[in-house]
Design a protein that fits this description.
Number of strands: 8
Largest sheet: 5 strands, antiparallel
Helix content: 25-40%
Amino acid sequence: MKEPIETERLILREFISTDDIGMFELDSNPNVHTYVGNKPITHIDESRAYIELVQQQYKNFGTGRWAVVLKENNEFIGWSGIKFITNEINNHKDFYEIGYRFIEKHWGKGYATEAGKAFIDHGFNVMKVDAIYAYADAGNENSRRILEKLGLQYVNSFEYEGEMEVWYELKNPNL
């Protein structure tokens, strides 16, 4: 396992099997899925399968989504991180994408921005990636605001899986 990343309030770490309960709380909430197009999950086995999928991405690509836990009490509050995307989205293929999803009671507290800043720093300074991309539902103002706070720049709008999406990018300033 990679070393966790600590921020002021958060510990960012690779998923472990006991994150299944928190993941189920996150992904069974329909409000979390308003802008992400998938349907809420209905059984904890779906959370376990997702964690196994992400753990396989760590092996295959050396990166993936990480658990976000509160430093003060080790509570699982969601995930964030940099994923390597191999399928084609908006004319891009084989790229690094930042994302985040949090349990609803933790929305609006700045956790996505705090974790995102740490992952951008990690992506550019440790992983040495050329650029980090992101996309969000065009109507998801909160997610778009977070991407802009992280320094990503709007590039274009595009249709993906029947939804209008917005594409953002941030080039590594060190390269």
